[in-house]
């Protein structure tokens, strides 16, 4: 009997195997058709979105959501990578649908496709190319200078920290379907046995404030420097489409959740939108990376959806120089052999350089007529810089301009010191010094004021060297939550001050929402000096539990007209859900902090029972609190401007950035000892003095300084570039050899070196 059963089982197995093999053979043509159809769908959606976006900008009909989406558009190699991921994702959806209809049951796309055919899909869509690692053997000067993309910084793991790679995960992602759908995608589905609150409702009840507490210690420059640093480290592109791939629905005209649309639902009786509003705030999901979500199995990776960082993870001033080779070359002035960056050829700032203009068919920065009400107002394009967000606000534009001017100042000085250097050498040496400048300013001056002395001592003690095992990649929680702490420190105004550091009569202070995408204010309204004085001469906003996020950012973000403005707090929480970030308590546990499980414990953590009650009334469980909001609600650490959780996450990230950077400024061999000693005297005050018409500044520009105690620029030491004079470096080396190496001395005597 057993033998008969075995024969029957064997027969069934063979039949099933033949069936599977037959299906596998059929799958080749099915896959090719699916890939072609997927490409057609994606290309159609891309083209529609491009045309529609251009048309909206041309007729001045771009909404705040359009502005945010256009600013977060992938470009260059990033766009190629995002399109490949979209091809792949949609091809597998089509295959799944086709196979599911054949089997009349739910089926995974990979159930009846061979590994060979999966690789074919990857090749046909371009996803396979995203995972190939180039050799570093042919890259010149790898031990001296960085590549623009950060590739080959780590010789063993060549993609560590490089641009266009996935954000890293310190904790596993948490998606509603375990793979790609955000928590809250299906609002009827519970999370930890509770319904998630709407992010706009949370924003209304927790973040809302019209009162601004000013910081007793720090200037608004500290806030803007945080944004500047963020734009050196991370940029996660949105999907470039405004229309659903599958349904063709325009995400701006529907509140339906369909990829890539994940709109922010408006609660009833919303104070801005009124009762029973059926509107929603448009929201586009971040683009997936190849080999994640539905495509992850192909590369042996975790199958959950991952998001891309288009920038390098190193402090290399990529927001000035670009994060890929093509962008880096575009920004250089290659008409001469002087190592300079391009500057504006139409306008100057009282003789000083402006950033060059973008050359695009549309001008998102044509905002002057709308803001001033003067239809005849002269418009200018957005500025061109290493990061596409350079024109986001005039304060950020000012730091970009300082970066451009400082590079060109260094390049000219180095050329005088070493007239035999060619333009490439000058450019790379100036870029290298700039990287060291901002590494020092970030770790010495900026971070201690943000995370406090305790976290500095614990996570960022004295430099101990490069560790090739450390991945410096930017983590998802850092980019999507922790380093958005600065939103709570933004003033609702952009201050502009005169030479006496008093309100500028001709160019007055402006509301924040009237400084978004307004490069014309820099060109036509006094240049950099009034803005920079406003940054160092006015206080930052102090984040408190009672007054968290200015309504300029909650109710008027990117608002130029009466269009539906965005809510930055709601967007931050929605983005965290989009990226599958675990909740607040998981991250407290990650940082070895106490984990609150109920109202009373949360009240003790927050040192505020009222705040704890408000959060628990919304979330019903501490497990569901969005990590950005939970961490933002914590009381500040001693000497810092964030709570314990943000301090831990920020410090951990900067620890990895420093430890995993083979070209960190303190690493032996990157600079000479004399050069390092000179760099230690780097000063943000000196950079301001060297590149503006300002004659008095705070000695510590991040610290509030009374006008009577401002320092004359003539009293601030300049950077000593003499250690970069090549002949002197060579002579010092030769003298050392002469004293210690008799053979070398003999050779030099024989060669007539001393004649």
Low-confidence stretches: 4-26, 104-111, 295-302, 746-755
Mean pLDDT, all residues? 87
β-strand amount: under 5%
Q: Shape from CA axes?
A: globular
Q: How would you sum up the major sheet?
A: 2 strands, antiparallel
- What is the SS-derived class? mainly alpha
| CATH level 1 class label of the largest domain | Mainly Alpha
Radius of gyration: 28 Å
Instruction: Please list the strands of the largest sheet in the order they lie side by side.
Output: 1-6
List keywords for this structure.
755 residues; mainly alpha; Myeloperoxidase, subunit C; 3 domains; two-stranded antiparallel ribbon; two-stranded parallel ribbon; 12 strands; disordered C terminus
Summarize the helices and strands and which ones pair or pack.
Layout: H1 2-58, H2 64-71, H3 77-103, H4 115-125, E1 165-166, H5 199-207, E2 208-209, E3 214-219, H6 220-233, E4 264-265, E5 280-281, E6 308-309, H7 318-321, H8 325-331, H9 368-372, H10 394-417, H11 423-459, H12 476-480, E7 493-494, E8 510-511, H13 519-524, H14 528-537, E9 539-541, E10 549-550, H15 551-554, H16 568-578, H17 584-590, H18 599-606, H19 609-619, H20 627-632, H21 644-659, H22 673-679, H23 684-691, E11 696-697, E12 711-712, H24 726-740, H25 742-750
Parallel strand pairs: 2-10
Antiparallel strand pairs: 1-6, 3-9, 4-5, 7-8, 11-12
Helix pairs in contact: 1-3, 1-4, 5-16, 5-19, 6-10, 6-14, 10-11, 10-14, 10-23, 11-21, 18-19
Cofactor: heme b
Keywords: Disulfide bond, Heme, Iron, Metal-binding, Oxidoreductase, Signal
GO biological process, one term: response to oxidative stress
